[in-house]
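Worked example 2:
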Amino acid sequence: MDLDEIATGLYALPPAEFTAARDERVRAAKQAGDVPLAQAIGRLRKPTVSAWALNRLAHEQPGELDELLEVGERLREAWRAHDADALAELTRRRAKATGRLSRLIRERSGLSSTAAAEVDQTLDAAVVDAEAAEQVRRGHLAKPLSYSGFAPAPIPREQVRRAKDKPSEEETRQAEERKAREREEAESAYTEWRDMLAQAVQAHEERADKVARLTQKLDKARKKLAEAQQRLEVARREERLARQRLERM
């Protein structure tokens, strides 16, 4: 089995199982005497949750990615050709395909809002960058991808304006859903920390009262100890004097 096959199997696993499975593959390669393969496997990095969710889709349902990656390829061609009409149509198809895949991945993998945003970011990168598209297709991602460059070729301002249509209903719905999820998570976090704060305040007040009571008792005990020490010194002095008088008789 070569590195590509091994990587495919490892990156299809949930992140929690990745490290142990990778280390087992490293040991197996070493036992087989293939040190270079063992070293290459050892360099494979554990995927983030968002990367794993995309890898899972690529391995289990590769056809689901085909439409978006095809749209991305045609969109790059339209950029190079300055085809504004194609850009407008493909931009709408891109939004629809991205939204569908994003929902599918979230439903299958139960992602947090942060991981879901990383999935969307990676899908966007796969649309505008051919290398990113190939990485997503192979399903060997260890972390989310991003694209910060420019379109493959400059597009006249008028064509850009025509391509940038107003947000589609799908984009608007996605934005509203994302905002609702983020607000729900924020409210949940606030409620949790508010309750924890109340508990912490109560615990602090109880312990402060206990410390105050113990301090008061300690002060009294120290005072009594000082009095006892004084009586002890007087008793020792008087006992010594009495003994000396007795010895002189």
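The radius of gyration is 36 Å. Confidence is low (pLDDT under 50) at residues 151-160.
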